[in-house]
Automatic annotation (TrEMBL):
GO cellular component, one term: cytoplasm
Gene3D superfamilies, A to Z: 3.40.1280.10, Hypothetical PUA domain-like, domain 1 (2.40.240.20)
Record keywords, A-Z: Cytoplasm, Methyltransferase, rRNA processing, S-adenosyl-L-methionine, Transferase
A GO biological process held by the record: rRNA base methylation
Pfam families: Methyltrans_RNA, PUA_4
Compartments it resides in: Cytoplasm
InterPro entries referenced in this protein's UniProt entry, alphabetically: Alpha/beta_knot_MTases (IPR029028), PUA-like_sf (IPR015947), RsmE (IPR006700), RsmE_MTase_dom (IPR046886), RsmE_PUA-like (IPR046887), tRNA_m1G_MTases_N (IPR029026)
EC number: 2.1.1.193
Name listed for the protein in its UniProt record: Ribosomal RNA small subunit methyltransferase E
A molecular-function term among this protein's GO annotations: rRNA (uridine-N3-)-methyltransferase activity
Coiled coil: none
Protein family membership: Belongs to the RNA methyltransferase RsmE family.
Record domain Ribosomal RNA small subunit methyltransferase E PUA-like: where: 33-78
């Protein structure tokens, strides 16, 4: 019996677990979830034959199936449906200044759960945390692992991209190509709730560091086309402000 053809409609998510494979087979009646994912499924989640699961590649390809066997080799899944999940509209990009301590992965985790599609780590002038040249790869690895884990937890078939660390000049270059760029600023008069959102294209949200944006950064971001907006009267941590903004944007676009 041939495997089901891919369905390009967005599947309705239920409570079944999601596992990610970098190389998801494009066809076939069964999928083997092996390696770390398979060990996690068998030893931690303790899935048993007959239970429903989803397996994706993190880029939109998604398999629905039923566990056939769970053992030392991993999780063997019988395919019942295949989907090609389209990217959500509009695309959400978060430009996140490096938070202090270990709050960077937290910011990525929250943003992933709330719908971000791309995260840009930003070395803003007043960042307390600095990724030295020999620590950039380690920092990026932590952020990317947080995005992958959060995508699985929230059952997102697409794992957000975490870009390389960028300077202010590079960030401004990125903003010049988006459809709507917003900078969260506590002194801004315009509320985020009052901004008109595009139905498609790319919406970017810029979140500064704990010490705030410098005057030069504000000027540069505005010159790149960004609008300064505020979330509300409270001042949020840089690690949670992006997530709050994404939630507000999702309510007005994707979740409506």
């Amino acid at each position: 019996m041939s495997a089901p053809a891919p369905d390009h409609a967005r599947p309705v998510l239920d409570g079944s677990s999601l596992f990610l494979l970098d190389d998801l087979p494009l066809d076939g009646d069964e999928v083997l979830v092996d390696g770390p994912e398979g060990r996690h499924a068998v030893d931690v989640v303790r899935l048993a034959p007959g239970e429903p699961v989803r397996v994706g590649d993190g880029r939109g390809a998604l398999v629905e199936g039923v566990v056939v066997d769970a053992g030392p080799a991993g999780l063997r899944v019988r395919v019942t449906a295949r989907h090609e999940v389209p990217a959500a509209e509009p695309e959400f990009v978060l430009v996140q200044a490096l938070p202090k301590g270990d709050r960077g992965p937290l910011a990525v985790e929250l943003a992933t759960e709330l719908g971000v599609d791309r995260v840009i780590p930003w070395a803003a002038a007043r960042c307390v945390t600095r990724w030295r040249e020999d620590r950039i790869d380690k920092g990026l690895a932590k952020w990317r692992a947080a995005a992958r884990a959060a995508a699985k937890q929230s059952r997102r078939p697409r794992v957000p991209e975490v870009a390389d660390l960028m300077t202010t000049r590079q960030v401004c270059g990125e903003l010049a190509d988006v459809d709507l760029a917003l900078v969260l600023h506590e002194q801004a008069r315009r509320p985020l709730a009052g901004v008109e959102l595009p139905d498609s294209g790319t919406v970017a949200v810029v979140v500064g560091p704990e010490g705030g944006l410098t005057d030069g950064e504000v000027v540069a971001l505005r010159a790149a086309g960004a609008q300064a907006v505020r979330l509300g009267p409270e001042v949020l941590r840089t690690s949670t402000a992006g997530a709050a903004a994404l939630a507000a944007l999702s309510v007005r676009s994707r979740w409506s």
